[in-house]
Amino acid sequence: MTVEINKNFCSLEDNYLFSKIRAKKRDYEEKHPDQIIINLGVGDVIGALTESAINALKSGIEAYKSVENFKGYPPEQGYPFLREKIVNYYKKFNVNLDIDSIFISDGAKSDLSNIIEIFSDLTALIPTPVYPVYVDTNIIKGNKIKYLECIPENNFLPLPNKQLKGSYLIYLCSPNNPTGAVFSYEDLKKWVDFANSTGSIIIFDSAYEAFIRSGVPHSIFEIEGSENCSIEIASFSKRAGFTGLRLGYTIINRKSKRMNEFALCWARRQATEFNGVSYLIQKAGEATLTELGLAECQSKIDYYLKNAEIIKKVFIDKGFNVYGGTDSPYIWIDCKKDSWEFFDEMLEKYQIVGTAGAGFGKGGEHFYRLSAFALRKDILLAVNRLKK
Ligand code: MLT
């Protein structure tokens, strides 16, 4: 017997979505070196990092200069100073967390991928369109997947229904990537009740919560009963501009007997397979959660939301049905044709890189996503090109 590859990899698309987008952009650039491309594809933040974070990085480096203050391996679940700040942050939403329920990591993407190691074989319940990581990781693990359709008729927010029998690992993302849709308290409560009554677990991806402006929940833990059935995965990437620094966290409520079993497995998994995030980055993360740090981050997010408003208007004026962009940095456009064809057209005619909806799964066909993470001058350049 020879060692074989994990055959589940053969069931994946050839390339990860954003690798494909980058490759297409590169190809176009090589063929048209004189053209200026506006990149509204992958949701990567722009600089500069906030002043609080920069100052924390600068002062954090001091610790490494002396024997007394030197920092080696960080504590397994992250430094208490950062976890305490996160506990405080959630108090704004009337959520009382226990510091031991917070696990610091190098970002939401890794946690969303790795978390499935702590579950036995299962059926994942995944909305479509969706952030491709949920689907790909379940395919790699060999889990069954059942899809939930997100369409304009349900505001891209599917709810539990009578056809759903048994227990599931349920993926919810609000504000949603890619559609920008946000769950209300009432609708999240329906999912929490469903999860508790069927023995399911909700994986709640709150990577974009800082973009919320409309009074909907920021955390699944705002919903009564969620503490016994939910895991929340959050990130500093979009909230504080840390896509390059890498910082995130997972919350599993240790006070719930049921969830504590998952928390123990997660702690064990992380201790074995992960060595934590550097002191320096955790100091920077802490700084973004001070009063000043939060205000600085919010002003960056206001800037992105204004970008979203500007670009959204052009498509509305052109007669497209456009969604998202209000509690979210993503604009979701019904492009009424094959989404890769539309992607190519946008690139060829306007030198704008977006993301073809089909890359987010079957439910994204005929849609196109634009990211508002860009400099205002580039957004205005895109608007000018589109108006012409
Ligand atoms: C996106 O564009 O959907 C995100 O930036 C991808 C990510 O956060 O990994």
Query: Which second-level CATH architecture of the largest domain applies?
Result: 3-Layer(aba) Sandwich
Strand content: 5-15%
* Averaged pLDDT: 97
Low-confidence stretches: none
Order of helices and strands: HEHHEHEHEEHEEHEHHHEEHEEEH
Proportion in helices = 25-40%
How far from one another are the termini?
63 Å
Largest sheet: 7 strands, mixed
- Shape summary: globular
How many separate structural domains?
2
Rg (CA only): 21 Å
Strand order of the largest sheet: 2-8-7-6-5-3-4
Q: How many beta-strand segments?
A: 13
Question: What is the overall number of helices?
Answer: 12
Bound molecules: D-malate
Find the CATH superfamily of the largest domain: Type I PLP-dependent aspartate aminotransferase-like (Major domain)
- The CATH first-level class of the largest domain comes to Alpha Beta
Structural class: alpha/beta
